[in-house]
Amino acid sequence: MANRDFGIQPELDIISEGVTLPFPPMEYRNRVNKIRKKMYESGIDMLYLTSPESMYYVTGLNMVWYAANSSSLWDVNKGPGVAVHVDSEDVLLFQMADEFRLTESHAFADEVFIKAETDNTVINGRTFEGPGPGQDVLDLIVKDLRNRKWLNCRVGLELGCYRPPARVFMALQEKFLAEGCTVSDGTDIVASVRNIKSPMELNYIRRAAAIADIAHRAIASEIHGGMTELQVVGIHTKAAMDAGGEAMGIVQMVRSGIGKVWMGHPPASRRVMMPGEPVAVDLSGVYNRYHANVGRFYHIGEPTEEYAEEYRNSNAVIMEEVRKLIKPGMMVRDFFKEMVRVYEDLGLWDDQAFMGGYEMGIAFPPDWCGEFVYDAFLDMGDKIFEPGMTVNFETGFGVIDPIIFLEDSVEFPSRTSYELCVVPETRAAWEYAEEMY
User: Fold this and answer.
1) 5 in a structural domain
2) I need a labelling partner for 401 at 20 to 30 A (CA). Which of 3, 52, 254, 415 fits?
3) 106-112 long-range CB contacts below 8 Å, 24 or more apart?
4) Considering just the CA atoms, what is the radius of gyration of the chain in Å?
5) Residue 245 and residue 287: Cα distance in Å, rounded?
């Protein structure tokens, strides 16, 4: 009897526990079909996705290194991505050989193509297809797409994303053009589909908000004067990860002192927090890469009555008004018309740093801001808050809160108070409070 190759891979017998897809296969299939519909409406035949967020949305592939800003010698690692065609439900996933175990066991795809950097690369006892003389990995990807008859068409690339860098984008574009394709920007296709979350995605954002609350509770119970900003980062990071949270897309946003809290986005430092200083902590809980942004202020020791009153009016009172006003189906411009009036009535309009927000959802470093952005200075046209959207809202005075839009209601999943959190001036005062309570 002739030997037959059944494609059995011994390494798949030893996949470790805990390697699962975050969503059931049918949800991924439904996402692909929503993307295909949007492609059809946009005049795109094939979409080649390279951003970590889009690749994760379509396949569930979750990695910590995408080679995006690495050595030019590794440019070959920056081009693999995910291909979707308007006329097929199939998902094609391209990845490099050093990720083959993860890719073959932890991604939703109808076909996986693993490539090597060279034609003689051996990884863990397996040999993968590599480029021959005069070729590179992009040539192999194009060849596989040609064999699928997915070329000589209108191709969309994520030109608005950082991965791959421009040099690789240009090389990929040239190869598609050589195949008779026309190339255009397809960045907005997956971004627009991702804007409306499924019920399971919304549950992940609720869990992310709960993790953010746990992180803030840890800060409130442990922070005191004499600590550094970096120590506060350590407190909330440990608490979040102990609760099952993951690494945030933006890290180390702890700012202390009158001069630094409104400085924009400086990283936490070795600066020692002193009595009488405000401390801003802007963090996200993360669950299966879904983020919920919860920002709050702390104060080392008792603030003046004037400061405490100003803080309450510019945060707790504003958030009470937001909760009353915002609704699913509401035009964004109408919401801001009412909110500007609230700020003006409180005498706060001229002092706000940013009143508005942006989409929350899937995020990988170095960002967690989604495609949809709204604020009082943008022309929002006829845009509405649609059911299934998730955003954050920033008062411009320290409080940042996540919002979920349902069919008939609005949900604020964070339970962390909007009030200023007053913490001990010194470690001795903190230890005394621990003994007393």
Assistant:
1) no
2) 52
3) 106/19, 106/20, 106/21, 106/60, 106/61, 106/62, 107/21, 107/59, 107/60, 107/61, 108/21, 108/25, 108/28, 108/58, 108/59, 108/60, 109/59, 109/82
4) 25
5) 6
Which CATH number do you get for residue 411? 3.90.230.10
**∠ CA 14-18-23 to the nearest 5 degrees?**
120
* Owning domain of residue 430: 199-436
Both tokens of residue 219? 């800060």
Structurally, how many domains does the chain consist of?
Answer: 2
Contact 399, 296 (CB under 8 A): yes
Q: What is the pLDDT of residues 172-224, one digit of tens each?
A: 999 999 999 999 999 999 999 999 999 999 999 999 999 999 999 999 999 99
Give CA–CA dist 301/312, Å, rounded: 17
Partners of residue 402 on adjacent β-strands: 392
Cα gap 158→189, rounded to integer Å: 9
Q: Say how far apart CA 347 and CA 276 lie, in whole Å.
A: 25
Q: Quote the pTM value.
A: 0.92
Q: What whole-number distance in Å separates Cα of residue 225 and Cα of residue 201?
A: 39
SS3 208: helix
